[in-house]
Structures are given as structure tokens and as C-alpha cells.
Design brief:
about 25% strand, alpha+beta, 8 helices
Length: about 210
């Protein structure tokens, strides 16, 4: 009876382990973020379809066995990534500029862990990748637009200010600071300061 009980317990343990592995695989494959596992030298040993699609591949089977070092535009970026990972053991929200299969740029946010073997040596790198390329490009476009506006104001010798009614905070453009002879880096804009620079006849609203 002892052997029968042991067999039943072993069978239950095997079924629980199989169910756990199936749940993990389902979570792995259906995760909207890219999930990956690579060897320290860069070879991809596992990933989900989301990871493959982010990098321009049709499916995980197409990208498995690929050398992920080819995803970097600069070898220095790969070296910095590995250096920080080995020093910390894990990276949270690490920004990576990667190369898609067609050569286009991918800006990704990675959360990565370095798994060590029994001898304390790097064995596997595993983590998740989130694509924020569109957001990055939008931020760059906004920065370019702001730079062009600032340059246009400088050339035209025109300043601007912005008053946020929700927070009642006031901000001046760099050119407005220069017009009034104040240092843009040190000036703290306030409504009182602005009002003090307005002619007293113009401070009272027209009736």
C-alpha cells in the first residue's frame, strides 16, 4: 500500500508540474510584450511571437537560433548592455535602440534578468521587450518643433509666455527672457513679476 500511495503522489506531482508548465507557456506565448531567452553570446533560444514581430520577423520559429547581436546598430551599445547587466544582475526599463530585420529602427524598453549556473557563471539572459518607437519619434518631433519655434522667436526677436490656469504656473520663452534682460536659466517666472513689467496704465483691464 505504501508503494501505491507513493505512486499516486508522484502521479499527482507530475500532473501539477505539467499543468504549471502549460500555464507558463500560455502566458509566455500570449504576452503582449516581447518575451525572450538568449544565451550570453546572443543566440536566441526561446521567445514569443510578439518579440519576433517587434523585430520584423513573421513568427517565433523564424527568429529562433538567430544571433541577437545583429539587432544592434553599434557594437558599443551591445557591450554597454552586457556590462550593466553583468554588474547589476538585472535591468529594469533599460532603453535599447535596436535594428529590425528590414534595417528600420526599433526603440525598446527592456526588463532583463541574468540567470547564473551552479558555478556562478552567466547561463541565460531572459526578459521582456516593449516597443515604444512611435512614442520616441513623437517626442523627437515635438523637440524639433520646439527648437524651431525657439529659433524663429530668436530671429524675429519675439518672445512668448505660457500661463497654465490649472496650476497657475507661468513660463517664459528664452527669447522673452532675453528681451527683458534676465537669465533664462535662473529666471523664475511669476504673475507678479510679469505684472511689474507692464506699464501701470495697462494693468487695469478696460471697462
Amino acid at each position: 500500500s505504501g508503494q501505491v500511495a507513493a505512486a499516486i503522489v508522484r502521479k499527482q506531482s507530475e500532473e501539477a508540474l505539467r499543468a504549471s508548465e502549460e500555464r507558463f507557456r500560455l502566458l509566455f506565448e500570449q504576452n503582449l510584450a516581447g518575451v525572450f531567452r538568449t544565451l550570453p553570446d546572443g543566440w536566441i533560444i526561446d521567445c514569443n511571437d510578439a518579440f519576433a514581430r517587434m523585430l520584423g520577423y513573421g513568427s517565433r520559429t523564424e527568429i529562433l537560433g538567430t544571433d541577437s547581436t545583429s539587432f544592434y546598430f553599434e557594437q558599443e551599445d551591445r557591450d554597454n548592455y552586457l556590462s550593466e547587466l553583468r554588474a547589476r544582475g538585472a535591468l529594469d526599463n533599460f532603453v535599447a535602440r535596436l535594428r529590425r530585420k528590414d534595417g528600420r529602427e526599433l526603440w525598446g524598453m527592456e526588463t532583463v534578468n541574468l540567470i547564473l549556473n551552479g558555478q556562478g557563471e552567466p547561463e541565460v539572459i531572459q526578459g521582456t521587450l516593449v516597443d515604444f518607437t512611435d512614442r520616441k519619434h513623437a517626442e523627437e518631433a515635438l523637440h524639433l518643433s520646439e527648437s524651431r519655434l525657439e529659433e524663429a522667436q530668436r530671429l524675429a526677436h519675439l518672445g512668448s509666455w505660457n500661463w497654465d490656469l490649472s496650476s497657475l504656473s507661468l513660463s517664459w520663452s528664452d527669447e522673452l527672457c532675453r528681451i527683458y534682460g534676465v537669465d533664462p536659466a535662473a529666471h523664475v517666472a511669476s504673475f507678479e513679476d510679469f505684472l511689474s513689467r507692464v506699464h501701470r496704465d495697462e494693468r487695469v483691464p478696460a471697462r
